[in-house]
Design goal:
Helices cover about 35% and strands about 30% of the residues. It is α+β, with helices and mostly antiparallel strands. A hairpin with a 4-residue loop joins strand 3 and strand 4.
Length: about 400
């Protein structure tokens, strides 16, 4: 026996998805949705901060045995690299992991763990502990050997054992030091390592970029550094436009220390634009900071540092005040006394805004009206589709 299905149930089942599709299409076409899709994307890259250095090569090292998952055995050098800091200074580093090539004369830049192979690695803090408690931070090789039960250690075997321990923590690699004393040191460091927090940048600005309307004081950005002081230099374009860098007291600054808050003063009426400020100083790079280069290069992690030249760059952007009011501006904006925080640059723009405000409208009014009409039309179509019944169905 067959079961008759009412025609109306099939008809309504077809119409409802059609109605939903029409409504979804209308909502997707809304300007707010389109703007959100446009702005949702990868965050802009953070300006570099800290040191830039060139890899000189492996200087203090021994040998290690790497066993692959396929059973292959490789003999590789393991130890301490040296790097020349651009602007002055030297670094001692270990390879972060086994991936990539440590190519002499390759240029590296300081980066946070999140921008390095240690991103998301739960062992990163333990690697920093290894660096803090082994060679070259501990130059007492006899004491280090006694703690590790390693007999006697040389600089070469201490460097090899330390590198092997780092490789194990960074990659989970099956690797052993060829020298028995170095192997005992690697085992000891791996067992004893505790988790330490990520070290701060040798020099940085937080946040690295702020924005606000011209005619206001924009900021602050806070200086973070271990240097005794750093110089503060606006770029040539900023100087030409009259942009000034001020301290919290409102006075121009040319030097800063750790914790200094900097503000940018952009003259009222300045056309939309941006400017940068460069901070420079000299300090030791914290142990555990990572330096990266190209995708094929082996990342390096700092094990020792002389006083080294460090640099950080901050940026200020001042789009039109009307655009800031409509979309919101990132960063804190602090008005200058006597200046309107929401001032609009350009007489014509100001008059247009005044007219819109007086009428109770805004620049988005035509768009909103058009969208409302479209939704009303589509709503009527949906109702008709849902209620309309062919004469044959009623019979």
């Amino acid at each position: 026996m067959s079961i008759a299905v009412p025609a109306c149930s099939v008809s309504v089942g077809v119409r409802r998805p059609l109605a939903v599709a029409l409504l979804a299409a209308a909502l997707t076409a809304a300007p707010g949705t389109a703007r959100a899709a446009h702005t949702d994307g990868p965050a802009p890259a953070r300006p570099p901060e800290g040191v830039s250095a060139v890899l000189d090569g492996l200087r203090t090292y021994g040998q290690a045995v790497l066993r692959g998952s396929d059973g292959a055995v490789r003999h590789i050098p393991a130890g301490l690299y040296e790097m020349r800091v651009e602007g002055g200074g030297t670094l001692q580093t270990y390879g972060v992991g086994l991936a990539g090539f440590a190519q002499p004369q390759e240029r590296y830049t300081e980066t946070a763990w999140s921008g390095s192979p240690l991103d998301g690695n739960g062992q990163a803090g333990r690697i920093r502990w290894v660096l803090e408690h082994s060679y070259p931070q501990l130059n007492d090789l006899a004491g280090l050997a006694e703690a590790a039960g390693a007999g006697a250690l040389t600089a070469d075997s201490a460097a090899a054992g330390t590198q092997v321990a780092i490789w194990r923590l960074a990659d989970g690699a099956t690797v052993e030091a060829a020298d028995p004393a170095a192997e005992k040191l690697a085992d000891y460091l791996q067992r004893a390592a505790l988790r330490l927090p990520e070290p701060p940048a040798s020099l940085g600005l937080h946040p690295a970029e702020v924005s606000g309307p011209a005619g206001t004081r924009i900021g602050p950005v806070t200086v973070r550094t271990r240097a005794q002081h750093v110089t503060v230099t606006p770029d040539a374009e900023a100087v030409r436009m009259g942009v000034r860098v001020l301290g919290a007291d409102g006075m121009p600054v040319t030097t800063a220390v750790n914790g200094t808050r900097l503000y940018f003063e952009v003259p009222a009426g300045t056309a939309d634009g941006s400017a940068t400020v460069t901070l420079q100083g000299a300090t030791r790079v914290p142990v555990g900071r990572v330096l990266t280069s190209g995708a094929r290069s082996q990342a390096q992690i700092v094990a020792g540092s002389s006083d080294s030249a460090t640099t950080a760059t901050g940026r200020v952007v001042w789009p039109a005040a009307a655009r800031l009011a409509a979309h919101g501006a990132p960063g804190a904006v602090i008005g200058v006394p006597g200046a309107a925080t929401g001032a609009v640059t350009g007489e014509d723009d100001g008059e247009a805004d005044d007219r819109l405000a007086a009428s109770g409208s805004s620049a988005a009014t035509p768009v909103i009206a058009a969208l409302a009409v479209g939704l009303v039309v589509l709503g009527g179509m949906v109702v008709l589709l849902l209620r309309k019944r062919p004469l044959e169905e009623e019979e």
